[in-house]
Amino acid sequence: MPELPELEILKSELNVHVVGRRVQEVIISEGKEDGCSVSGLKAAVEGAAILQVERRGKMLILHLDSGFSLLIHLMMVGQLLLSSLCDSERKDVRLILRFAGDELTLGQVALRFVRLVPTSELDELPELKKLGREPLSDDFTPEVLERVLTKRRGRLKSFLLNQSHIAGIGNTYADEILFRAGIAPTRGVSSLKGHEIERLHTSIVETLQQGLELGGSSEMAFVHLDGSKGSFQDHFRVKRRKGEPCFVCGAPIEKTALGGRGTYFCPQCQR
Ligand SMILES: [Zn+2]
To answer: Could you confirm whether 185 is annotated as catalytic?
Structure first.
């Protein structure tokens, strides 16, 4: 699933390539779509210009000058492609925003994960209100992380995946963050010492930053607007490396299920 770095990359690319442009036509795929407000979509988006693109957690928000905003969650394998940058095959297209000369397509994700919301009501939207701290923002300090951790229960891996604590981290980056921090995913949140919280904070910021610099992880379906892939998956230290030797200590990387999620870790380096 695309996580914070991948969505941040798409946000930046959309701000370069589609902001300021007017949507001439909206094309919605045929098919049964539970819970999607497609009826209002054409009316609110056709003829509107895109003012700005934001990211919150794993969600992209396209602000339109019609007073509406379009929220897009790419779920597991969703793709956004811009036809003027990308001539590769577009799979399972569900939504097309057509501009003068090119079009933005959304594929491989059900339309119920696209929502149209009056921009004035965004702050009150439950799925945005419940989002926790943005880990690459300037105000995400070790002290803030310590406060977020305080009085929480459960295991550290589940804590990192909970979007209401820290927004934007998913199953891939969580395992890489914990390996780089040298902390076992099974550790109880309340057991972390001060120096471990510092290490965890550093690892969260540096791992997400590395993901960004490497163009994101294309381990699954993530591609840039031009169809190109990121390369963070070539730098995985534990993810998808079950049984392979740890790059640091040589012990075989292990995989376990935590909260129903496949979790990779080094039994020697992570304590
Ligand atoms: Zn190791």
So the answer is: no
